[in-house]
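Appendix C. Worked example: Cell division protein FtsQ
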Amino acid sequence: MWDNHKALNSFASFLFGAALLMSLVAGGYWIAHSSYFPVRKIRIDGALKHVTPEQLRLVAESELKGTFFTLNLDATREAFEKLPWVRRAVVRRQWPDQLEIVIDEHRAVARWGESGLLSSQGEWFDAASSEALPMVEGPAGSEKDLVRALADAGRLLAPASLRVVGLKLSERRAWDVMLSNGVQLRLGHDDVEGRMARFVAVWQQELVKLPYRIEYVDLRYPNGFAVRMPDYKPGNVLPRKPAA
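Step 2, the predicted output written as C-alpha cells:
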C-alpha cells in the first residue's frame, strides 16, 4: 500500500475531509453553546387583556434556558401556555439575539358551572374573571354546543332587549334558558330556535304587558305555551300597567 501513491493520496484526502468535518462539528457545537450568543431581547406580541407583563416576566426568568441556538422552542411555548388565560403561544427566533413570542388569549363568554370559564372557541379553561358572564351547565363534551347556543340566543333575543344570564343543557339534550328579566324559558330539545323566536314575538306583543311576575314560560307544546305567574289568582285580575 505504501508504494501505491494513488491509494495514499485517497487515504490522505479522506483523513483531511474527516478532520475538516470534525472541526466544523466542533465549531458548530461551540457556537451553539457559546455564551457569546445569548437571548438578549424578548418581544411579546398579541392583544393582551388578562395576561400581565409580570406573569410573562416570571415565565421568561424561570423557564428560558439556553443560548439563542440551544433554547428549546417547544418547551418555551409550553411554559407560556401554562398561564391561565393563554390559549396558544407561538415562539420564534429572530436573528441575532431576539426571541419573538405571540400570545393568543382566551376570550371568555360564560362561566362553566362553579369552576372555570368557557371561551368563544368552546374550550373550558381554568381562570378567574370579574366580568358579568352567563352561567352555563351541560354534559362533558357539550362546550361547543353551549357556545353556539349562547350566540344564537343572543341574536334571537336582541329585538326584545333581553339577554341570557343562564343556559343549561340536560343529559337528554333539553335546553333551559334564564333571561336577564328573571324569566326562565323551557325549550326542550326540538326546534329550539323556532320556539325561542315564538317566545320573542309573544313577549313583545302580549307577555311584557301583563301586570304579573312571570316565573317561567314553557314552550315545549306543539301549538302553544304555558306561563307560570305566581301572583296571578283566577277571578282576581289586576289592572294592566298604564301605557308608557
